[in-house]
Write a structure and sequence with these properties.
- The complex is a heterodimer of chains A (109) and B (120).
- Chain A contains no helices and 10 strands.
- By secondary structure, chain A is mainly beta.
- The radius of gyration of chain A is 13 Å and the shape is globular.
- Chain B is mainly beta.
- Chain B has no helices and 11 strands.
- In chain B, strands 2, 4, 5, 6, 9, 10 and 11 form a 7-stranded mixed β-sheet that branches. Chain B has a 4-stranded antiparallel β-sheet with strand order 1-3-8-7, with no helix packed on it.
- In chain B, a hairpin with a 4-residue loop joins strand 5 and strand 6.
- Chains A and B meet through strand 8 and strand 9 of A and strand 5, strand 9 and strand 10 of B.
Amino acid sequence: SSELTQDPAVSVALGQTVRITCQGDSLRSYYASWYQQKPGQAPVLVIYGKNNRPSGIPDRFSGSSSGNTASLTITGAQAEDEADYYCNSRDSSGNHLDVFGGGTKLTVL
Amino acid sequence: QVQLQESGPGLVKPSQTLSLTCTVSGGSISSGSYYWSWIRQPAGKGLEWIGRIYTSGSTNYNPSLKSRVTISVDTSKNQFSLKLSSVTAADTAVYYCARRVAATSAFDIWGQGTMVTVSS
């Protein structure tokens, strides 16, 4: 079982806003990173740190955090945003090991 | 720009050792503050962190795999490697190598992944 918990599936109407969440004790101390994975492709980093986007990631992607929950928000979801999304952070053991959430399948309707 | 490429056998027999190599191109594996990492993904399932090696050579492993995993680096070849011993069908997965930035803890660059099947 993962130390980071994500909803298995979320849906959003085209052009609307969707929030994907990630819960875990370690998120009280560390930021989450977020990855987008489309079928047959490697994951792509979309958000890291407090709310940073790598070059080339659209500004409709944003991140936030409160307590033990990190969130990825897509404002104005596009058809091409349909994908699996994974959060990642350090574990809660104090050894700073990496851990991934179970992933959220985003469907754009 | 830095790119990663995994290589190794696509089929491994049960109880044997899985060996993969990740070749880093477009930059030196020794420069910067990075953790060179391995991550795997069974078909239809989520990502599982396997372990990492720092530029200095220090390693960290997933506790659930620690007894079977070794990650090493060959700076002369600009490569790092994964060895997973005593494999079973449960180790069948796509294996990714990735670069983790020390300052942000984010995996900013990924290889394309390589499928490894454990079967006799």
